[in-house]
Amino acid sequence: MVDVSAKAVTARSASAVCAVRFPAEVAAQLRASGLRSAKGGIVETAVIAGTLAVKRTHELIPFCHPLPIDGVRIDIDWRGERELRIACAVKTTHRTGVEMEALTGATVAALTVYDMCKALSHAISIGPARLAAKRGGKRDVGCAP
Does 3 qualify as catalytic in the annotation? Predict the structure, then answer.
């Protein structure tokens, strides 16, 4: 792991986005059902999964530091007729940033949407996932998603 002990403790935040695209007929079914599948509420389940993933990023990615997470927000909404946009924003006050946590939260939420919908089609696609913004540390990147 990178030694961050000499870095200042500062407020840091990051946001990431990931898309989930559906075949037209699946998107229509999901809209008609209020984003519910046979497994239950898709959005609610994806938000829980993404939040848990943020908190466990250091267990999944070998050189990530375990961080005290001050806040997580996951927003999921339609973008166009066939795509869900998942945005994950994470905050901490620490010596290192939360970019990996935001990316992990967004992608695990997307994977959860896929899992909740795969009985409808295996032609669902995930991605791209990308960092939308980060604040704190040496430099700020991007803007809010």
Answer: no
Q: Name the helix (H) or strand (E) containing 104.
A: helix 99-117
Task: Give me the residue spans of the domains in the chain.
Answer: 10-136
Give the DSSP H/E element, type plus range, for residue 85.
strand 83-94
Question: What's this model's pTM, rounded to 2 decimal places?
Answer: 0.94
Are the CB atoms for 102 and 18 separated by under 8 Å? no
- CATH 3.30.70.640 for domain 10-136, yes or no, is yes
pLDDT digits (tens, 9 = 90+) for 59-113: 999 999 999 999 999 999 999 999 999 999 999 999 999 999 999 999 999 999 9
Q: Given the residues 70, 75, 77, 115, select the one marked as catalytic.
A: 115
Q: What is the token pair recorded at 104?
A: 């992990």
C-alpha dihedral (129, 133, 135, 138), degrees to nearest 10: 80
- Coil vs helix vs strand at 99: helix
The answer to whether 68 touches 124, Cβ cutoff 8 Å, is no
7-42: per-residue pLDDT in tens? 989 999 999 999 999 999 999 999 999 999 999 999
